[in-house]
From TrEMBL:
<feature type="active site" description="Nucleophile">
    <location>
        <position position="414"/>
    </location>
</feature>
<keyword id="KW-0004">4Fe-4S</keyword>
<dbReference type="GO" id="GO:0070475">
    <property type="term" value="P:rRNA base methylation"/>
</dbReference>
<feature type="binding site">
    <location>
        <position position="339"/>
    </location>
    <ligand>
        <name>S-adenosyl-L-methionine</name>
    </ligand>
</feature>
<dbReference type="InterPro" id="IPR029063">
    <property type="entry name" value="SAM-dependent_MTases_sf"/>
</dbReference>
<protein>
    <submittedName>
        <fullName>23S rRNA (Uracil(1939)-C(5))-methyltransferase RlmD</fullName>
        <ecNumber>2.1.1.190</ecNumber>
    </submittedName>
</protein>
<dbReference type="InterPro" id="IPR002792">
    <property type="entry name" value="TRAM_dom"/>
</dbReference>
<dbReference type="Pfam" id="PF01938">
    <property type="entry name" value="TRAM"/>
</dbReference>
<dbReference type="InterPro" id="IPR010280">
    <property type="entry name" value="U5_MeTrfase_fam"/>
</dbReference>
<dbReference type="GO" id="GO:0070041">
    <property type="term" value="F:rRNA (uridine-C5-)-methyltransferase activity"/>
</dbReference>
<dbReference type="InterPro" id="IPR030391">
    <property type="entry name" value="MeTrfase_TrmA_CS"/>
</dbReference>
<dbReference type="InterPro" id="IPR012340">
    <property type="entry name" value="NA-bd_OB-fold"/>
</dbReference>
<keyword id="KW-0408">Iron</keyword>
<feature type="domain" description="TRAM">
    <location>
        <begin position="5"/>
        <end position="63"/>
    </location>
</feature>
<keyword id="KW-0411">Iron-sulfur</keyword>
<feature type="binding site">
    <location>
        <position position="318"/>
    </location>
    <ligand>
        <name>S-adenosyl-L-methionine</name>
    </ligand>
</feature>
<dbReference type="Pfam" id="PF05958">
    <property type="entry name" value="tRNA_U5-meth_tr"/>
</dbReference>
Amino acid sequence: MQMIPVQKNEYYHVAFEDLTHDGAGVAKVEGFPIFVPNALPGEKGKIKITKTKKGFAFGRLIELTEESEHRTNAPCPIYKQCGGCQLQHFSYEGQLAFKRKQVKEVLSRIGKLNMDEVTVHPTLGMKDPWNYRNKAQVPVGEREGGLVAGFYQQRSHEIIDMEKCLIQQAANDEIVQAVKNICSSHGIRAYNEQKHKGWLRHIMVRYGVVSKEIMIVFVTKTNDFPHKKAIIDEIISIYPNVKSIVQNINPKRTNVIFGDETNVLWGEEYIYDYIGDIKFAISARSFYQVNPEQTKALYDKALEYAQLTGKENVIDAYCGIGTITLFLAQKAKKVYGVEIVPEAIEDAKRNALLNGIENAEFAVGEAEVVIPEWRKQGIKPDVIVVDPPRKGCDEALLETILEMKPQRVVYVSCNPATLARDLEVLERGGFKTMEVQPVDMFPHTAHVECVSQIVLKEAAGPK
Ligand SMILES: C[S@@+](CC[C@H](N)C(=O)[O-])C[C@H]1O[C@@H](n2cnc3c(N)ncnc32)[C@H](O)[C@@H]1O
């Protein structure tokens, strides 16, 4: 058995060599890895061990003795308390390089790809990597009789009030504050997680960056709404861009934000926004990318990798409200979109109509169930696009892709580890990964999005 060379609560002087996938510095003591938030590769410092596990330990940075040239002052005053961003202390240039390195590393280690044969491009960053999020989703609590809305203090259930988040659109911060203050003035009680009592659990705000339309969602424990008329009247009298006010009811003792029931309180069921020239209707529960500027860059790359000429049949798996589907439809013969959330498919159909797109067809269901059905019905895609959640593609879907043998697969991924795992399956089944483009959808956080082009080996030509 390997001896653990460090002890809890002891101090060590270490050199940081790398970053973990979630942005913590990695140092080693006698080859034993220690993960320390807020430390950067190339730095040295004194740490205190906070926890030991069988194969690794966690530490806290006490002082730096050598700083990286990429260290920068995190501009957010609550950066360390919040935990929503992990890389604000890292220069933006350094963040982009780290994300590319991380993608290369997992493709090689987990995907077993021959990295001499795959091009991983430099991460596509933002010119101004701040105020990019179009959605705020904040828990609500109580302090001295009034409401607070912000974030959970790291490793606690305490809600810290937040007036400004530097990665949010300013409009979102303003509306969250206003809604909180209006509710406070009407004596609205916040939900208390421990006691499972109270009413207002979360406030969500969605902002159409191009349309300027705003949706407000009240997530509440019960389906009543004290002072409903007064609260709504006050909101809409101050904010004419609010087009939709919705209540979602979540009666469960859970840390899942949304419940199953959603009711429109005022205005429309959805707001509109644009990505490029395409107009989208977005309802409260539908997935919609949070960084619209980078979404356009991501979708343009997906379209480039799909290499459409107008003659192709395309499948868009995990299509959400049909965002990528409608981009593809402009250049393909026909596109089939599939998505598990019924409301998102309703939005997708509405979005096709809204844009006069007639060559897109949508189905509700699990991609791993619906696409094998399509195969049985004789649908033969030339290109398959997948954009799964963090857990990646279901095995049954990958199996079906191998059987369907499209000329190209375009894989959009928000988790490089599951992307790498799935690419290995596709490579073993006769496909070859050609290019991977990391896109910085979430600056200052450790997340990275990638779009990859994978081709059928016969189509790729001899190696
Ligand atoms: C990362 S989002 C992508 C959405 C869309 N392509 C976009 O860019 O807006 C993943 C989507 O997959 C959906 N989803 C999750 N599991 C699924 C499954 N097994 N089959 C189909 N869709 C699923 C989610 O509801 C979500 O809309």
